């Protein structure tokens, strides 16, 4: 075993490196974006806050059933009169224009995302926003080539898509939903999460800037009831949902018996599997990225580390050392690795499940780290002594908490990895290509990463097995989810 120094040597002291928030112009209040205009809602309003400071950022309209109805009607008109009839080559021009504006305004989008969500600026700047632009560029390229996608000679749009997204990747989930829907000729009504509405509203401004025809994109802010009204609306042809398995099941019940098409992208409890022949330093980076990226608010997070027994001590020692170097704090500091937990509710859930982990016999460890006085924070944490029966090995914590289990043989690794109600993603770390392929075949997960983790690309389909949902987003399957190969109904 390679000897690891007991303490990480602090080679550098970091000076604060704050990103300026002067680039964003947050208004005191926001209306709903319906039919190309910002309008007052009929309902109440709610506040969105900065989870790193608890500062109120803006007052946002809460769409009620009547507002949702207006948005769906606007989307229907835009679909039948303009967007559904427009040649794909024309739709592509709008999508390319949106993609270009996103790139041009990327710093503004990244800063706003970090302020409203709590994620580190280096993540929103280097990961989220570039992939958002990539999605629009990618699907813009498909808009005039739908008949070459292998989906029939003349695939038709479904009509109006009702789309509901969570708070962990607000703008990225918006892009995953809106880009393929528009490329395929659908119009959309999108509901962002209650705690993170601001980048969706800035995206609405981008639609105006791009001269997108009115009603093609509508944004209805609100909470669960707004989402429910959208799902239940008779004028919606397709429901696309990303969020928790619990709400996903409720949505499936609501649309059962209707002709609405549905895709559900739900939770996960991914196994990140490290074999004894893995490049250990690389694997440590992958484990850290797998669970501490975006504070662990990631559906495909590698929240269960399965490590081969013969290297478990070494991996744990190195992992703890690496965790001691993670910088937790101000999301707008360019050196921050782990930002704020998105809400007080989510923080309470992470505390609750971590306490259960301890009371069920797991050993909890976190590096010494000073957390800011205001805002919602949780230190990077790992649990050892975890068995498959423990709740922290079974339930999605959706926070920076890693459960560590061990295995002896590849068959045991597969058995343990698949022993979950979910099946969204998995990671395999090994030197052997044949073992990677064997494992990928055995694992019941929609995405299997090999010697890497949390890699996303618009060309690559993403989605789950079992309680992680059904349908795929990304690539051609992501386009197929918005097209009808054999009907002219949506035209
Ligand atoms: P959530 O509570 O299910 O909320 C998701 C969205 O649904 C939010 O916009 C929410 O509104 C809305 N909503 C709540 N109740 C609703 C209802 N009855 N009908 C219609 N819409 C309703 O999930 P979350 O806690 O925000 O997000 C975390 C979950 O998302 C995790 O389980 C995570 O794994 C999953 N996720 C999955 C993927 C994937 O691709 N598979 C990606 C990211 C996240 P409000 O927030 O405004 O209440
Ligand atoms: Mg917020």
UniProtKB/TrEMBL annotation:
Residues 38-484 form the Aldehyde dehydrogenase domain. It comes from the Bacteria. The keyword S-adenosyl-L-methionine does not apply. It holds the Pfam family Aldedh. The active site is at 265. Belongs to the aldehyde dehydrogenase family. PANTHER family: ALDEHYDE DEHYDROGENASE-RELATED (PTHR11699). This is Aldehyde dehydrogenase family protein.
């Amino acid at each position: 075993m390679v000897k690891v120094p007991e303490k990480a040597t602090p080679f550098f002291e970091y000076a604060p490196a704050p990103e300026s928030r002067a680039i964003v112009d947050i208004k005191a209040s926001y209306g709903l974006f319906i039919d190309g205009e910002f309008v007052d809602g009929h309902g109440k309003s709610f506040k969105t806050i900065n989870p790193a400071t608890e500062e109120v950022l803006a007052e946002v309209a809460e769409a009620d059933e009547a507002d949702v109805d207006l948005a769906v009607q606007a989307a229907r008109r835009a679909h039948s009169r303009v967007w559904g009839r427009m040649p794909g080559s024309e739709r592509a021009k709008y999508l390319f224009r949106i993609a270009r504006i996103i790139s041009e305004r990327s710093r503004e989008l990244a800063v706003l995302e970090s302020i409203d969500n709590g994620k580190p600026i280096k993540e929103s700047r280097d990961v989220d926003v570039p992939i958002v632009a990539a999605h629009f560029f990618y699907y813009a390229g498909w808009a005039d080539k739908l008949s070459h996608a292998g989906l029939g000679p003349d695939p038709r749009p479904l009509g109006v898509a009702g789309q509901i997204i969570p708070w962990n990747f607000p703008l990225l989930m918006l892009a995953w939903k809106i880009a393929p829907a528009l490329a395929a000729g659908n119009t959309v009504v999108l509901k962002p999460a209650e705690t993170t509405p601001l980048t969706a509203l800035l995206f609405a401004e981008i639609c105006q800037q791009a001269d997108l025809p009115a009603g093609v994109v509508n944004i209805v802010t609100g909470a669960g009831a707004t989402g429910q009204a959208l799902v239940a609306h008779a004028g919606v042809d397709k429901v696309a949902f990303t969020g928790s398995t619990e709400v996903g099941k409720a949505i499936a019940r609501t649309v059962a018996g209707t002709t609405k098409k549905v895709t559900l992208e739900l939770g996960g409890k991914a196994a990140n599997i490290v074999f004894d022949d893995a490049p250990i330093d690389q694997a440590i980076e992958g484990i850290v990225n797998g669970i501490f990226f975006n504070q662990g608010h990631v559906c495909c997070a590698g929240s269960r580390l399965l490590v081969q027994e013969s290297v478990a001590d070494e991996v744990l020692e190195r992992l703890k050392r690496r965790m001691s170097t993670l910088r937790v704090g101000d999301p707008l500091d360019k050196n921050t690795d782990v930002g704020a937990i998105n809400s007080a509710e989510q923080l309470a859930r992470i505390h609750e499940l971590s306490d259960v982990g301890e009371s069920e016999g797991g050993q909890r460890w976190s590096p010494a780290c000073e957390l800011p006085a205001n805002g919602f924070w949780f230190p990077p944490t790992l649990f050892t002594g975890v068995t498959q029966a423990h709740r922290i090995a079974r339930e999605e914590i959706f926070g920076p908490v890693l459960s560590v289990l061990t295995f002896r043989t590849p068959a045991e690794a597969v058995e343990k990895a698949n022993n979950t109600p979910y099946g969204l993603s998995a990671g395999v770390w090994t030197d052997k290509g044949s073992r990677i392929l064997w494992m990928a075949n055995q694992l019941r997960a929609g995405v299997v990463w090999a010697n890497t983790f949390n890699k996303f690309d618009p060309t690559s389909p993403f989605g789950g097995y079992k309680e992680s949902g059904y349908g795929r987003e990304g690539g051609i399957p992501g386009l197929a989810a918005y097209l009808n190969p054999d009907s002219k109904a949506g035209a």
